[in-house]
Amino acid sequence: MAQMGRPRAFDREQAVDQALNLFWEQGYESTSLAQLKAGIGGGISAPSFYAAFGSKEALYAEAVQRYLDTYARVNDSLWDDEIAPRKAIELALRRSAKMQCEWGHPKGCMVALGVMSAPTPEHAAVAKPLADSRQRTRAGFLRCVERGIASGELSADADARSLATVFDSFLVGVSTLARDGVRYPNFDAAITQVLKVWDAAQS
Question: In this prediction, what percent of the chain has a pLDDT beyond 70?
Fold first, then answer.
């Protein structure tokens, strides 16, 4: 009688990365348990899935945290006081646009796309970490503009919130365009144009 092979080793870290890509590509509500079980670890049984992750919601939360700890760090310059405020905004825009266009993972930003990932009220708590991240980025842009005003680089009567919204709305829009196939060189050139809004507000 033939012997059964040894069970395939389950790489939990790899499984979270695989789930992250599924959620990033399709969103929380559109990603089914069947897709998750088939897509992680080369296929995983329902009992193994629940033993490893507890629930789809718990796995999503873990995948989101993995994204925030890795890919979302492209915006860290917004909070670095060692970087001049205009440069901090430029770095955040270019690094984020570049990441969103890279091969090897879904296009766009999971944080920006997350606004439609779990749009129904019953799943609002699931999407809250992404909403919090969007708010943090928005606050980061505002912080940089306010630093520019405080240092005299920008005019004292510059409208800080309006300027911050220009940069934030551009960055949010990158996700849709990246999904539509717009390449990084187009974004890179567009960022140069967007930064002229900062230059026009200089004192």
Answer: 94
